[in-house]
Amino acid sequence: MQDIKFSRFNAWTLKDNNELVLYNSMTGALILFENPESDEISIALQNNQALSIPEDIKNILLEDGFIVESGIDELTKINDLVIKRQSLIDEYYFSIMLNSDCNFKCFYCFESHSGEYLNDTVSQKIELMMNKISKTAKKISIDWYGGEPLLSFDKLRDLNGKFMEICKEDNVQYRTSITTNGYLLTPSVIEYLKTIPLSHLQITLDGPAETHDVCRPLKNGKPTFDSILENIKMAVDQKIEVMIRVNMTKINIDLISKLYKAIETHGLKNRVQIMLRPVVSSSSNPCEAHCLPEDVLAGRAADIYKQAAEDGWIVFPNVDKLQCMGFCHAEFPGRFIIDTRGNLYRCGELFTPEEAIGNISENGELVLDQDRSKQFIEKNPLNFPECKDCNIMPICMGGCNLKRFRKGINCCDEFKYVLPKFLEVLVLNQNSIDKNAICGGDMHEKN
Questions:
Q1: Shared domain check, 176 and 34
Q2: Using CB atoms within 10 A of its CB, is residue 32 exposed (0-12), middle (13-18) or buried (19+)?
Q3: What's this model's pTM, rounded to 2 decimal places?
Q4: For the chain, how many structural domains are there in total?
Q5: Would you place residue 321 in the very low, low, confident or very high pLDDT band (cuts 50, 70, 90)?
Q6: 187-193: long-range contacts, CB 8 A cutoff, minimum separation 24
Q7: Domain residues for 317?
Q8: Which of 163, 166, 204, 290 is 20 to 30 A away from residue 431, measured at CA?
Q9: Domain final residue, candidates 376, 401, 436
Q10: 223 and 247 share a domain?
Q11: CATH number of the domain within which 365 lies
């Protein structure tokens, strides 16, 4: 047997019943060991003695990346992933802001809601840009964004049709998605969405009705939860993928588990994806009083996910997909947010004219401030000492640029604070995935 060592990306925990959960954040491998193997492996892990592992188990751990040859520097794999990400210059992802208007009044929204709409002049610039980049692109994805994009449904449909034609003519893979509050998701809109290459809708529900309607009412104060949930069911019944975002705050943290129950009551269990994300206070709309500290948020999110997974919910993608959580959209060279004036941004929370990293010219060229753009593109977690020693770096990759470079605060993946519990959730989640597949569930994994 060659000289071997444990992978630096192993994470493990012993459960109360002495089962050992072993996870590798680079390969996505996840294994559950029972006694007597769990004792042998946990002792070997504690003493960092890979050679003491029994031969039959050693072969399994080698195959799944838990054990590697001693001469391998696993950090080169991280650098390879960074270089691969930086080289994706033929893949484009645009979040196009159709308007800065909204029919909701969410207390934490960081947008100004100035009421501007994407006009024909800027639309023509975007169309010219699409014509130019499609000549060399392999993939183009558009997320229709706002404000509330469905307030501009006619514009969405017009531009989307033009983009589909451009990409078809140039043999470019085209996908689209919509980030919407879901209130205007009418039957006629859904009929249209069935005819286009739509990957998913992202819709926010901030807990059950009693918290959602406090956090996300209409401008006139009226509730929105029931209408949105009915619209989600209507979309899912028409085979449209829906991802539900829950913005976690002190207001809803104790009641989010009730949301899973409400969704299940509507026949949507494991037919939608649910992701829990923190609310971030912004300079345009400070809401720090309602935000949770990261360690508290991590623990509560893990508790919510664990309870849901125990109830049979799929709360994460398949474990080997978790690495795709690592890079932020802002770090890819071909990913931009376009506002109603044709300005370009990397980060949705750095969304003021002075934070623009460029614009679309009159003839459709992407004109970039290279220095500002490089702040995002050139980020490498290997440059941060605290990241180099982190065993879950592949699902974090240096964390949030906004937190690290602009706010000067901790930007680790929140589950680092509660890693043992996170690993237990991964096991429960994998059981839910397996059971759902056996029962013929129709939730699709996202690449």
A1: no
A2: middle
A3: 0.92
A4: 2
A5: low
A6: 187/234, 189/150, 189/153, 190/234, 190/235, 190/238, 190/240, 192/157, 193/235, 193/238, 193/240
A7: 82-376
A8: 204
A9: 376
A10: yes
A11: 3.20.20.70
Q: Model confidence over 202-243: pLDDT tens digits?
A: 999 999 999 999 999 999 999 999 999 999 999 999 999 999
CA terminus-to-terminus distance, the chain: 36
337, 145 contact by CB (below 8 A): yes
Q: What average pLDDT does the segment 144-169 reach?
A: 98
Pseudo-torsion of CA 229, 230, 231, 236, nearest 10°?
90
Other Cβ atoms within 10 Å of 169 Cβ, number? 10
Residue 386 lies inside a defined structural domain of this protein: no
Pairing of strands 30-33, 20-24: antiparallel
Lookup result for tokens 């623990």: 299
Which among 12, 38, 72 is the end of a domain? Answer: 72
Sort 239 into a burial class: Cβ within 10 Å, 0-12 / 13-18 / 19+: exposed
**299 vs 140: CA distance, rounded Å:** 37
Residue 438: inside a domain: no
Q: How long a stretch of residues is the chain?
A: 447
Residue 269 corresponds to which amino acid? K
Contacts (Cβ under 8 Å, ≥6 apart) of 126? 96, 159, 338, 342, 360, 364
Give the pLDDT of residue 386.
87
- The pLDDT confidence band at residue 439, using thresholds 50, 70 and 90, is low
> Nearest Cα to 335, choosing from 111, 96, 102?
96
Question: Rounded to the nearest 5 degrees, what angle is found at the Cα of 264, between the Cα atoms of 259 and 266?
Answer: 100
**Which alpha helices (DSSP H) does 17-103 contain, by range?**
37-47, 55-63, 75-86
Tens of pLDDT, residue by residue over 276-308, are: 998 877 776 788 888 888 889 999 999 999 999
Q: Which residues contact 342 (CB under 8 A, 6 or more apart)?
A: 122, 125, 126, 359, 360
